[in-house]
Design brief:
The protein has 310 residues and is mainly alpha-helical. Among the domains are: 70-114, no CATH class; 120-185 and 206-307, no CATH class. It has eleven helices and three strands.
Length: 310
């Protein structure tokens, strides 16, 4: 205890001296200065001489830009880009052209022209016309009596595709001429290009094969061979499946539904006489309008047979 009392003042004295000693600052370390990276080399500018498109005295392959077309940018822009595209094509709608027009708002003009995808668009056009025909018939006896008899249903479902198949090509040729073969002389894509090769196997004829199936199944059922008919239809279903037609169940219910579409010979209608009678009425009618107005007011299959003289 005594030794602690003697040494404590000395410790406090040395602590006081160290606290009062001057503080020397460490010399600052040198910072690395960034070295300038070499400027990227740019290829020398070059002028490319080319003839304008189209060259003077030669008609353009595409119609001139109209004031009412969808466009972005001034009409007097130095560059006008005409874009043929489809709003429904997700892969086609690139934003590069939009960025180009925004980057050069005074120099670039974009003109958009709807160029539908043929397969999808033709299906849409046909569906609209087909269903419009059903709506037209709904307000007349043929539509009001749709479910009264199987014959009336077949008359209705056969009339709709007949109208569809006649109006759709006219609509496409008038409003989308670049999709049709009527402009083949311009070198554009034809409406139904022939891409088959001479050595290609003949395509699978769904309608012909389905008609064969329906006729044979009806024969077996007429002879009372129900088990054989069911086995035959299952074998044919697998045959259609192997050729790309995913039919879940092939039976009389299938024929009852799809057999109503008899606008062309063959198919699930088999030997049903309603389809040929409807087509005969169309053949003897002066126009599609005359045919539609005549059949829409029929109340029975007998009315149709009477109209075609049977």
């Amino acid at each position: 205890m005594l030794n602690l009392c003697k040494t404590l003042p000395l410790l406090l004295f040395f602590a006081f001296l160290s606290a009062c000693a001057p503080v020397t600052e460490a010399a600052p370390t040198a910072t690395l200065q960034p070295t300038a990276s070499p400027a990227p080399t740019q290829p020398p500018c070059s002028t490319v001489a080319s003839e304008p498109t189209p060259i003077p005295g030669v008609d353009s392959r595409f119609p001139a830009v109209r004031p009412d077309e969808w466009s972005k940018g001034p009409a007097d822009a130095a560059v006008t880009i005409v874009v043929y595209n489809d709003f429904q094509c997700l892969e086609c709608n690139d934003h590069v052209l939009g960025v180009l027009a925004e980057t050069h708002p005074k120099d670039v003009r974009l003109v958009y022209r709807q160029f539908p995808q043929p397969d999808l668009f033709t299906w849409q056009v046909g569906t609209v016309i087909h269903e419009w025909t059903h709506n037209f018939l709904t307000l007349r006896p043929l539509g009001l009596n749709y479910g009264v008899t199987p014959e009336l249903r077949t008359m209705n479902e056969t009339t709709a595709p007949i109208v569809e198949n006649e109006i759709a090509p006219l609509l496409l040729a008038r409003f989308y001429p670049t999709l049709t073969a009527s402009h083949a002389h311009l070198g554009l894509v034809a409406w139904t290009p022939n891409v088959s090769q001479p050595d290609d196997p003949p395509p699978f004829d769904f309608r012909a094969e389905m008609r064969t199936t329906r006729v044979r199944a009806d024969e077996l059922l007429a002879d009372g061979k129900i088990d054989e008919a069911e086995a035959y239809m299952e074998a044919r279903r697998q045959f259609f499946w192997d050729n790309g037609y995913a039919i879940r169940k092939l039976n009389q219910a299938y024929f009852a539904f799809f057999g109503a579409y008899a606008d062309v010979p063959g198919g699930a209608a088999g030997e049903d006489p309603v389809g040929p009678a409807v087509r005969a009425l169309r053949a003897q009618s002066a126009s599609l309008e005359d045919f539609l107005n005549t059949i829409s007011w029929m109340n029975s299959f007998e009315d149709l047979l009477k109209a075609i003289g049977q």
